[in-house]
Amino acid sequence: MKTSVTIIAFALLLASCSSTETMSKLIDDRLSRSIEQYELMAASLMDQPDRLPRDITPDGKLRTTGPSDWVSGFLPGSLWYLYEYSERPELLDYAVDYTMRLIDQRYNRGTHDLGFMLYCSFGNGLRISSDTIFRSILLTGAESLASRYNPLIGCIKSWDHNGDKWQFPVIIDNMMNLEFLMWAARESGDNRYRDICLSHSDKTIQNHFRPDFSSYHVISYDTITGQVEKKNTHQGYADESAWARGQSWGLYGYVVMYRETHDERYLAQARNIASFLISHPNLPADKIPYWDYNAPDIPEAKRDASAGAIMASALIELSEYVDPPTAKGYLEVAEQQIRTLSSPEYFAEKGTNGNFILKHSVGHLPGNSQIDVPLTYADYYYIEALLRFKKTLK
Ligand code: GLY
């Protein structure tokens, strides 16, 4: 009896070791293949110094965009991550080149997306290279972002477009810009940036979330009273639906705010969002969400790889802040997401897919834009998730 228990325990130990090894091998393999793909991507735009990748055309060619597009920071950010992993000098050169394409964006006061744009690019650059020029560029950019804060409303304004529809739109995505401002608060010693982040996070808990911890996409505030004037969607299926990427942005945003503040309310918010997503009856077994959890044509609805990659990365970090059984549950979901995104269904062959890494994301389905295409941010958060998961295996 004792011998058979020992044999079973040994077999279980072997099984768990080999599954760790397999995940470790899978991560290294996909990072190596991502490097090959992104070196092709980076090389392809070296003769166009103002361009950055956006998505692909219907015939599979890379479509580019300018530095003021909200997605501009993701290629440089991915290059920094891949350089950090591999220390390949080619990647460092590319990372610096693509990062510097965004230098004028530090003065851009027309968007809330400066966290994505500047912190993924210059922020990773500063963290990895300690280049002090990056620091001053970031601090100027942080001031531009803070200029969009309205103290009556207590939030950072997201968009300037659609002024006839929304007085002061704040989208759930905006939680993603706070990491940048929290960094600026620490770095500059100016607590105004921190106060903005806390107010924005608290208002978002108050007004963006439903009792089940799903979130609205757009909350618009009345600029005279400071009160909510509208609860809408822009990129989701319906005002009352759970647009998948928005749910992932919210989860990631509160994980970051907990990391930055240790305020238990933000941890509770992140855990509640995670529970909503993980237990959602429309989350497929392979854990890559449909583009909207309430899409009417599920199970035929398009999947959104970007929502899966962002959620995986957030869950891996969240697993560090919770009790072991809960952490295990989060890591199991993240592992499944990484395995699915690493399968041939999602992971592109070298030289295909416009040299993006992942296939099958959805940008703006109701706008009939970017449906089932590769997207720079799906790749960025996938790489981040690979690197984060790798650390859990040590
Ligand atoms: N922040 C814009 C988007 O997620 O599509």
Task: Give me a quick take on this structure.
This protein is mostly helical. It has helices at residues 2-44, 74-86, 89-100, 114-129, 132-146, 178-188, 191-208, 244-261, 264-278, 305-318, 324-341, 376-392, and strands at residues 52-56, 62-65, 149-150, 155-156, 169-171, 218-221, 228-232, 361-364, 369-373.
Cα Rg: 21 Å
Query: Structural class of the helices, strands and pairings?
Result: mainly alpha
CATH top level is Mainly Alpha
| Cα distance spanning the termini | 34 Å
Shape: globular
Helical percentage: 40-55%
CATH topology-level fold name? Glycosyltransferase
What this model shows, in words?
With 394 residues, the chain is mainly alpha-helical. The protein has one domain (21-392): Glycosyltransferase, CATH 1.50.10. The protein has 12 helices and 9 strands. Strands 5-6-7 form a 3-stranded antiparallel β-sheet, with no helix packed on it. The chain has a two-stranded antiparallel ribbon with strand order 1-2. It is globular and about 55 Å long. The protein starts with a helix and ends with a helix. Bound molecules: glycine.
List the helices and strands and how they pair.
Blueprint: H1 2-44, E1 52-56, E2 62-65, H2 74-86, H3 89-100, H4 114-129, H5 132-146, E3 149-150, E4 155-156, E5 169-171, H6 178-188, H7 191-208, E6 218-221, E7 228-232, H8 244-261, H9 264-278, H10 305-318, H11 324-341, E8 361-364, E9 369-373, H12 376-392
Antiparallel strand pairs: 1-2, 3-4, 5-6, 6-7, 8-9
This protein binds glycine.
Glycine (GLY) binds at residues 70, 173, 235, 245, 363.
